[in-house]
Amino acid sequence: MSRKRALIADTFCLKRRRSAADAVAGDSHAEGAADIRSSLQNLMTLFSRKLFNDSLPPVVLKHQLYSLHSDRTSVDKQLNELRASGELLMFQLGFDSEAFALVFAEDYRAKVLQGEAGRETLETVEKFLDKLIPGCSDLSFNKEKMLKEFLFTDSEITQLVKSGVLTVRDAGSWWLSIPNSGKFIKYFIKGRKAVLGMVKKSKYSEILKTELEGRRTTSHVKFQMKYHIHDIVGAELVECIQTTSGTVLRYVDGNIN
Asked: Do the strands 140-142 and 173-176 form a parallel or antiparallel pair, or are they unpaired?
C-alpha cells in the first residue's frame, strides 16, 4: 500500500521499468539515459506553453517520472548523468523543501535570454549561463563560489537575483531558479488539489484512469489532465490498482486538508 503523502509533499528518487537491454554490459548507461531523456520529452509535451505566453521552458516535476519507471536507483543515476553533462537542469521550486523541477538546459537558456532581451542585466545573465550550463549540477550557490569560482561581483549577483535566475536561499546563498515561475507553481498546486478532489468525490473514492483523463478541465485545472495524473501517481497521492477494466486510481486518505 502506498505511503500517505501531504498535499504538496513529493518523493524524488526515480522509478523506471527495466528493459532487457539494461542488462547488456557496456550499453546500459547510454540506453538508460536515452530512456529517461525520452520520458522527459514525452512529459514535457504535456506542459501548457500557451498558458504562460510561451515565456517558460517546459517544466517536469521530478516525481512525475515515477508514473513511467520503476527502478529508482538506476534512473536516478541516469538523471544525474544528464545533469552532469549539462543537458539537464534541476531546480528547487520553493513551495516545498523537496519539490524539484527538471528543465532541459537549452530550453532554459533560450527562455531566459528571450526574457532578458533589451535589459541591462542581459550581459551578466549570459555570463552566468555560460558558466552554469556546461556541466554545473548545483541547485544553489554560496557567496564564496559566486565570487571566487564564478568571478561575479556583488553588484552582478544582485543583477542575477533581479533577473530571476537566482532567488535568495538565506544570507549569502541563492537557489538556481526559473524566472517567472511563480504562476506555474500557483497553477500546479491548485490543479493538483482539484484533480485529487475529483478522485476523492468519485464513488468509493476511486476512478478509472482513462475516465479521469477524459474529464474536462475546470477553472482550477489549467494544465492538461494527464500532466496532473502523472503528478498524483508519481507522488503516490493515489494508489494504482490494475483491474480487468483498466487502471483504477484510488484516493489515499490524508492528502487534502
From this structure: antiparallel
At which residue does the C-alpha cell 503516490 appear? 236
What is the DSSP code string of 36-56? Answer: HHHHHHHHHTTS-SGGGTT-S
The DSSP string of 186-211 is HHHHHHHHHHHHHHHHSGGGEEEHHH
- Residue 118 has a CB neighbour count (10 Å cut-off) of 6
Q: Cα–Cα distance between 172 and 170 in angstroms, integer?
A: 6
For residue 51, give every residue at least 6 positions away whose Cβ sits within 8 Å of its Cβ, in sequence order, or none: 187, 222, 223
CB-based contact 234:67 (threshold 8 Å): yes
HSE, CB side, 13 Å, CA atoms: give it for residue 154. Answer: 1
d(CA 212, CA 199): 8
Which residues, listed in sequence order, are joined to residue 238 by a DSSP beta bridge?
251
Q: Per residue in 185-196, pLDDT tens? A: 999 999 999 999
Cell of 140: 544553489
Task: Provide the whole-model pTM.
Answer: 0.83
247 phi and psi angles, rounded to 5 deg: -75, 125
| Half-sphere exposure (Cβ direction) of 159: Cα atoms closer than 13 Å | 17
